[in-house]
Design goal:
With 915 residues, the chain is of the alpha/beta class. It contains 31 helices and 38 strands. Among the domains are: 177 residues, no CATH class; 65 residues, ATP-grasp fold, A domain (Dna Ligase, domain 1), CATH 3.30.1490.20; 234 residues, UDP-N-acetylmuramoyl-L-alanine:D-glutamate ligase (3-Layer(aba) Sandwich), CATH 3.40.1190; 140 residues, Mur ligase, C-terminal domain (Protein-Tyrosine Phosphatase, Chain A, Alpha-Beta Complex). It has an eleven-stranded mixed β-sheet, sandwiched between helices. The chain has a six-stranded mixed β-sheet with strand order 33-34-38-35-36-37, with helices on both faces. Strand 33 and strand 34 form a beta hairpin. Helix 30 packs parallel to helix 31. The longest helix has 17 residues. It starts with a strand and ends in a 22-residue tail after the last helix. Catalyzes the ATP-dependent polymerization of arginine and aspartate to multi-L-arginyl-poly-L-aspartic acid (cyanophycin; a water-insoluble reserve polymer). In the C-terminal section; belongs to the MurCDEF family. Keywords: ATP-binding, Ligase, Nucleotide-binding. Pfam families: ATP-grasp_5 (PF13549), Cyanophycin_syn (PF18921), Mur_ligase_C (PF02875), Mur_ligase_M (PF08245).
């Protein structure tokens, strides 16, 4: 076997609407060895991974996958299921996968499976392949290309003999390092339950909920609404205590000290048992309780000082009572837990050390904060605590005797929690609420000492000893004893009150031609409707009309940039084939998805060989529309119209033909949403159908970008834009006003039908780059042509098209222009320099174009100069650019040869912008 490549679909993709990792696996000779031909393979695999018995693959019932194993299935499919099971055993339950053969490559499979963390998924895939290999007969063993899966993984084993226990431990270690903590994960789970988008922003616990202007961020239980001043107040224990005392919250008396001698003196003044703790510590580090002698106080100071940034230590009176954590969210008590210090109960037979080992064997206990409980560590503090009671780790407690191992009851040091939410006395709840508000925290953990939580501490003694920012939620979510409390829900409710939006409208579109213009039309309409629009297209990423990134921004990364932007209230996402194949969509679902057309372009790349393949890829946009969304399709394009079978949400159809087909007529008759170009008294009109009603939106000539209705491709784009905005609830009147101000100027739609009239001849800048685009351009140019006008064109095409497609572009250009300049693209995309021009030339000559009127220039800006110098007064020059901005500047700066006389341009309009 050999691993050829790997990739990640972080959003909906061609194979599933779920994020998945994938790798391409060449089985080689093992293609002839399905599982049923490998003696003992299935039984040995199930002995190692009995959980595979629960996999429902193929038959939809537990045991389905095992049935496939015994009937015979290929090893790529087996690897998929093992990778899923290994992730589950490591603590990241996943259950969805697919394995698909690669067309035209026998024995090559694309293995896909769901994941929680990408690194964990790659290690699971690597381990799955090594496990499969270890179960094969010796003569069939050997996996090549494991380094592909191991890339970026520290110390990923690829060579030494495979051992499942070691592989699982490596996976679990990686899960502990990469997974979210229990507090963050609980909030993420609650957000997903509510349908709120979740984006992890770093390798730790910084997470964004929502999109655009509605985004909120958290880190553990710190929210975007948590006051920085409140965190500072809570972090300074002395200041927090002063704030509480000032509003009548019972707190212990104490002092700040910086030396052990000062600590002893302060303890003597307080009298009785005292507590020492760092001024700005957390997680119970450096805290010592019930100190009564000067030596104990001195030792407590020495333990606390290293955990304080300024070596300032708090010495305060020891309040009576049990340790309780009261969780206050937005001024309300939502959970209470009694924290019990780490301890063991003797049996009269085993030592304390052995009893701790038995407690740590509880599967709920683990390292760090990811498990329900934390393992008890027998460090020096435990030994000191035991020594104070005359014990050591080797002591054997009597049966039933309870031995406390630590002074503090923090879960992070092995403590446990008992839910007391229903027991807290109203006075105690009021004290906790006041403490949180006084310090200034929206989410606060109040440490309350109370002899009996069901009685007021004002009667029994006790009080608040600390107020904690970023309180851990684990003890409330999964108490050791008692009822779990859903504390994530009130925190999320504070970030997103009932009815508050978390998403911005996402309007995504794709197609072979017209994407950029339609996207800009939609953005213009939404801006007119009051939105701050984030727009992606081949020119870059735009927010509120300003370009914030210059690049081809039609992929998922650019989409995510828009959805993270804090000003955006609506996203318009041009979506190209390349990003869909490489990484899927940059969002989970869209409010509006539109497919404008599917033409023969970009074929022969990444397994997309036919227009039917291309249509399947582009259909992803309407498959990923929300149930309440709208899918917009071109009823004139058979491949696009066929997508209605997989489209989600409400269907909306548009047609330029003026003669609706049977499907469109039935759609309109059933009350469906549609936009058509129909003849009217004064010319063509855009007509909207919805709910059985017909409404004339506007004459096409009133849309400046259509050049008085002549540019039919922009009429087509306007029809699609109308439906996309109607689907988002924009009023027809707003759409009418916006389209009437949408022009084909460079400023509004750069590189698409931009005319420049500052020269003795007219120049058109237009990014037509495939046969369908050139044919539409030819139709327009021949309508604009005046007697005596020559058409001069500069044409190129990207090098990643098929030879036949490039030659066809040359032939289309030959049918359009009187004089031709072919150029090379700045990036041949794998072709030698000059090869694209040669193919274009061959296509033009085969179409009968005169060789003496055909010019070849290697560099784009040189070709622009040659093209402009070929022009005479009254000609029309069409330039198809790659470097849109640079070419437009070159056109504006061009100086005709000396002696060239300016002459009236046939068809020139007074404004000089459009015919």
């Amino acid at each position: 076997m050999r691993v050829l490549e790997r990739g990640v679909y972080r959003g909906p993709h061609l194979y599933s609407l779920r994020p998945m990792v994938h790798f391409t696996l060449d089985l080689g000779a093992l293609e002839a060895w399905p599982s049923d031909r490998l003696p003992g393979f299935t039984d040995r695999l199930l002995a190692l991974l009995p959980g595979l018995e629960a996999h429902r693959c193929s038959y939809g019932v537990p045991g389905g996958f095992v049935r496939r194993l015994r009937e015979g299935t290929w090893l790529g499919h087996v690897t998929e299921h093992i990778a899923l099971e290994l992730q589950t055993l490591a603590g990241e339950a996943t259950a969805h996968g697919k394995t698909r053969s690669v067309r035209g490559q026998p024995g090559v499979y694309r293995v896909l499976y769901a994941y929680c963390d990408e690194q964990v998924a790659w290690l699971a895939g690597l381990s799955a392949l090594r496990l499969v290999d270890s179960l094969l007969p010796t003569e069939l063993q050997g996996v090549q290309g494991l380094n592909v899966l191991a890339r970026g993984l520290p110390d990923a084993p690829t060579q030494e003999p495979f051992a499942l226990p070691a592989a699982l431990e490596a996976l679990r270690t990686l899960v502990r390092r990469t997974s979210l903590g229990p507090s963050t994960q609980a909030l993420v789970n609650e957000a997903r339950r509510r349908g709120i988008p979740v984006t992890r922003l770093d390798e730790h616990s910084l997470v964004q909920f929502g999109h655009g202007r509605h985004a909120r961020r958290i880190r553990a239980s710190i929210t975007g609404g948590t006051s920085h001043l409140g965190v500072l107040n809570a972090g300074d224990k002395h200041r927090a205590k002063a704030l509480l005392e000032a509003v009548g919250v019972p707190v212990p008396q104490g002092a700040l000290v910086r030396t052990a001698q000062e600590a002893v003196q302060a303890a003597a003044q307080l009298g009785g048992a005292v507590v020492t703790k760092p001024l700005d510590g957390n997680h119970g580090r450096g805290v010592s309780l019930n100190l009564t002698s000067p030596d104990e106080v001195q030792r407590g100071f020495e333990l606390a000082a290293p955990h304080a940034r300024s070596r300032t230590v708090v010495v305060e009176e020891q309040l009576p009572g049990h340790d309780h954590r009261v969780l206050v969210v937005h001024g309300e008590v939502v959970a209470v837990a009694e924290r019990v210090p780490a301890h063991v109960v003797g049996d009269g037979l085993h030592s304390i050390e052995a009893l701790v080992a038995a407690v740590n064997a509880d599967p709920r206990r683990g390292d760090g904060h990811t498990n329900v409980l934390t393992r008890i560590v027998l460090d020096q503090q435990v030994q000191d605590r035991l020594a104070r009671s005359g014990r050591s780790l080797s002591s054997v407690p009597a049966a039933g005797e309870r031995v406390v191992l630590r002074d503090t009851a923090n879960l992070s040091t092995g403590g446990s929690a008992v839910d007391r939410t229903d027991d807290i006395h109203p006075d105690n709840a009021a004290i906790a609420r006041t403490a949180a508000l006084a310090v200034g925290l929206d989410v606060a953990g109040i440490d309350l000492l109370a002899p009996d939580i069901a009685r007021s501490v004002r009667d029994t003694g006790g009080g608040v000893v600390e107020v904690n920012a970023a309180p851990g939620l684990r003890m409330h979510l999964q108490p050791t004893n008692g009822q779990p409390r859903d504390v994530a829900r009130p925190i999320l409710a504070g970030l997103y009150p009932r009815g508050a939006p978390s998403r911005v409208p996402i309007l995504a579109l794709t197609g072979t031609n017209g994407k950029s213009t339609t996207g800009r039309m939609v953005a213009h309409i939404l801006t007119q409707a009051g939105h701050t629009v984030g727009l992606t297209n081949t020119s870059g990423v735009y927010v509120a009309g300003e370009r914030i990134m210059k690049a081809d921004a039609t992929g998922p990364r650019s989409a995510r940039m828009v959805l993270r932007h804090p000003l955006v209230t609506a996203a318009v996402l041009e979506t190209a084939r390349g990003g869909l194949l490489r990484e899927g969509l940059g969002y989970d679902r869209a409010d509006v998805g539109a497919v404008l057309n599917v033409q023969a372009d970009h074929l022969g790349l990444r397994g997309v060989d036919t227009v039917h393949d291309l249509a399947r890829v582009k259909s992803l946009l309407v498959r990923a529309v929300s149930r309440r969304g709208v899918s917009v399709l071109n009823a004139d394009d058979p491949l696009t119209l066929r997508m209605r079978r997989v489209a989600r949400g409400r269907l909306a159809l548009f047609s330029l033909s003026g003669v609706p087909g049977e499907v469109l007529r039935e759609h309109i008759a059933a009350g469906g949403l549609a936009a058509l170009r129909e003849p009217g008294e004064g010319g063509d009109e855009i007509v909207i159908y919805s709910g059985g009603e017909r409404q004339v939106l506007m004459p096409t000539r009133d849309i400046p970008a259509t050049l008085g209705g002549l540019a039919l491709f922009n009429v087509d784009n306007a029809l699609a834009a109308c439906l996309m905005c109607l689907g988002q609830g924009v009023e027809p009147a707003t759409i009418r006003v916006a389209l009437s101000t949408f022009t084909a100027s460079f400023e509004q739609n750069p590189g698409r039908l931009n005319f420049y009239d500052g020269l003795p001849f007219r120049v058109l800048l237009d990014y037509a780059h495939n046969p369908a685009g050139l044919e539409a351009q030819r139709h327009l140019l021949h309508q604009l042509r005046q007697p005596g006008m020559r058409l001069i064109g500069m044409v190129s095409v990207p090098g990643d098209r098929r030879d036949a497609d490039i030659r066809e572009v040359g032939a289309c250009a030959a049918r359009t222009y009187d004089e031709l300049v072919f150029r090379e693209g700045p990036d041949g995309r794998g072709r030698p320099r000059g090869e694209v021009m040669a193919l274009l030339q061959a296509g033009a000559l085969e179409a009968g174009f005169a060789p003496e009127r055909l010019h070849l220039e290697m560099e784009e800006l040189d070709a622009v100069d040659v093209t402009l110098r070929l022009a005479r007064p009254g000609d029309l020059v069409a330039i198809m650019p790659t470097q849109v901005d640079a070419v437009w500047r070159q056109i504006q700066a061009f100086t005709p040869d000396a002696g060239t006389q300016s002459a009236p341009i046939p068809g020139d309009s007074p404004g000089g912008a459009h015919p």
